Amino acid sequence: MLQLLEGKFRSLLSAVRATFPQEPPSVAAVGTAIEFPWRYRWHQLPRRSAGPGMSPAERAQAKARAAAVAEATLGSELWSLALYQGYLDVPSRIFKGVTYRLRMGRRIEVRTDPGVVAPWPLQYLCINPVYPLPEEEFFAQIYLYVRDREDIVIRVAAPQPWDQDLGRTF
């Protein structure tokens, strides 16, 4: 009986493994390079670095693609406003009288209406990407999170006493 169960388990495991390949598809199979940045450790990189071996031309291409992604994500009008002002203000849906000021490559500034007590004792919230991203692309991601998933931002953001550049954007 035990051998029968073991045999069925092994065949089920083989079927599952066949469904989910262990290795990423080859470049030839998909016709373009696929990156898996979450599989690497990025702690050793200097702040604001795009990653090891990225040339200035590749960095410029990444920034141009990121700007196109940000514009497609936010829409032309909102993206133009962000570029003109240097920030976007997103009102909180959870805390009355609280606004999040989002700036590219910077921490989130928590602003309050007069007489409103801020939900955090510190004025800035820090969220960094896991791996290096162009600041324009991360800005669009943070905008969507603050607008649509503020609960996650509240849970993961680290309150900070001062403003500064984000460490893993370039």
Describe the 3D structure.
This protein has 170 residues and is an alpha+beta fold. It has one domain. The protein is built from 6 helices and 5 strands. The protein has helices at residues 2-19, 27-30, 56-74, 76-85, 135-148, 150-156, and strands at 88-91, 98-102, 108-112, 124-126, 158-160. Strands 1-2-3-4-5 form a 5-stranded antiparallel beta sheet. α3 (56-74) packs across α4. The longest helix has 19 residues, at 56-74. The termini are far apart. 20% of the residues are buried. The model has no long low-confidence stretch (mean pLDDT 84).
Name the features.
170 residues, alpha+beta, 5-stranded antiparallel sheet, 5 strands, 42% helix
Please render the helix and strand layout as text.
Layout: H1 2-19, H2 27-30, H3 56-74, H4 76-85, E1 88-91, E2 98-102, E3 108-112, E4 124-126, H5 135-148, H6 150-156, E5 158-160
Antiparallel strand pairs: 1-2, 2-3, 3-4, 4-5
Helix pairs in contact: 3-4, 3-5, 5-6
